Amino acid sequence: MSVFVQSKLLPSGHSIPSLALGMFQSSPGAEAYNAVLTALKLGYRHIDTATFYENEGDVGRAIRDSGISRKEIFVTSKYFEMHGWSYHRVVNSVRESNRELGLGFGKGHLLKLAKTWRVKPAVNQVELHPWLARRDTVKFCEDQGIILEAYSPLAQGKKMDDPVIMEIAKELNATQAQVMVAWSLAKGFIALPKSVRESHIKSNLDASNQKLSVNQMMKLGNLDEYFISGWDPIRHHNV
């Protein structure tokens, strides 16, 4: 079955695919390289990495070896100050990156930034899934025309046995992970699931073909409980 992944238009005029392969915790070397190469061959055109992940070189090598035009592939990376840059370069890089991406920013952070920003953030990458809907942040970003990107859309696998997810997965003849990815896409988010297994990478991509009913979306909407599967930059980090 062919898979069509929609894209969203950025203020820059570039398009960002709505489904990405996350590279967090993908071991540098063969594991990261093979995951990216597999994803690209399956149809992914968006890879999310970071200097902190220590696999950017493997990502780049896989992209070059894939035979796919670089123009077709969207790559997201992030900057962290622990990598030996000078203080001023770090500050400037982080400011510029945050203006473009709004990484880990909630409504309060964005309201503060709105007083001084010269370039509105294009994308806000935060943890989002049915148990962490962040309605205030989502509404604010939507009102501002800021695209939301959901990291940990599978809640790090900690909610796979939720009865509602299992019920909907059975109704759709899908996996629980596919239901979660489908929810992110139905909400208009960019979904950022991570995996190094070919079967999971393909399954997450196939979730693009899953369509949730209004009733199923309502059931998933009732799961919100501010469940943080990892860390919470919105509550614990200041601008």
UniProtKB/TrEMBL annotation:
Signal peptide: none
Location of the active site: Y53 (proton donor)
InterPro entries from the UniProt entry: AKR, Aldo/ket_reductase_CS, NAD(P)_OxRdtase_dom_sf, NADP_OxRdtase_dom
Domain (NADP-dependent oxidoreductase) ranges: 27-102, 111-220
Domain of life: Eukaryota
GO molecular function terms noted in the UniProt entry: oxidoreductase activity
Pfam families noted in UniProt: Aldo_ket_red
Protein name: NADP-dependent oxidoreductase domain-containing protein
Site note Lowers pKa of active site Tyr, residues: K78
Entry-linked Gene3D superfamilies: NADP-dependent oxidoreductase domain (3.20.20.100)
